Amino acid sequence: MSTIAEVEIPAQEFALRKTLEQVPDAEFDVVRVAAHDSKHVLPYIWATADDFDALNDALENDPSVDELRILEDLGDERLYRMNWVDQIRVVIHILIEEEATILNLRGKENRWRLRILFPTRDALSATYEFCEESGLSLDVRNIYEMSETRHGLFGLTEEQHETLLMALEAGYYDVPRDATADDLSDNLNISHQAISERLRRGHRSLVKNALAVGPGDGKE
Q: What pLDDT does residue 214 have?
């Protein structure tokens, strides 16, 4: 069965370590990453920073970066394309050796957080063992098993998935609403407080796992 894992890696053991040291306010959100061989990783990265001149200088001089290119400049954020050529052993292992898919990858301050879809639970275990044997740190934060439905893809429990779909079908999200939280609680035979908490936690999981997975995101 496919498995989704959220893991954290210290910035000093990953690509862009020098850049994050020199520009500590920088944040990176990788929207696509691929490994074409065992020596290069090609990411597309949205970046924010207080000083983009300093960020560009740091990236140009970062030993893990090659062939840096700015694709979009929106003023307060930029889209970069680059090659990662150093400190990428774990990414190479995940993408090539385990044939896994990196769903989200975000770095800021002293950590990177990855959300990875592994083809099997054994592939996750093999990645953890690879990091241990290589002297790399891999902190597994959450694990979700994929089920016959797709709720595991977004970190939803079965109850949250059922409740959100019921709310959608009942018109809870319509404007104006065709159903209230009381209507949903009556249908599920649970309290108003329980339905509110289930909806809130379900919304949080959707936002966290679909839009904002990163170090520090979604902490209780």
A: 43
pLDDT along the chain (220 residues), means of 10: 90 96 95 86 95 96 96 95 95 94 91 93 95 95 69 71 88 91 90 90 76 46
Residue 154 CB neighbours (<10 A): 19
Pick 151-210's CATH classification: 1.10.260, 3.90.320, 1.10.10, 2.40.240.
1.10.10
Closest among 130, 107, 134 to 118, alpha carbons compared: 130
One-letter amino acid of 197: E
User: Which residues lie below 8 Å from residue 124, measured CB to CB, with a gap of 6+?
Assistant: 3, 5, 116, 118, 140, 143
pTM for the predicted model, two decimal places: 0.71
Q: What residues does each domain of the chain span?
A: 3-145, 151-210
Distance CA 80, CA 89 (A): 21
Q: Cis (ω within 30 of 0) for the bond into 119?
A: no
Answer yes or no: are the C-beta atoms of 25 and 97 closer than 8 Å.
no
Helix (H) or strand (E) holding 185: helix 181-188
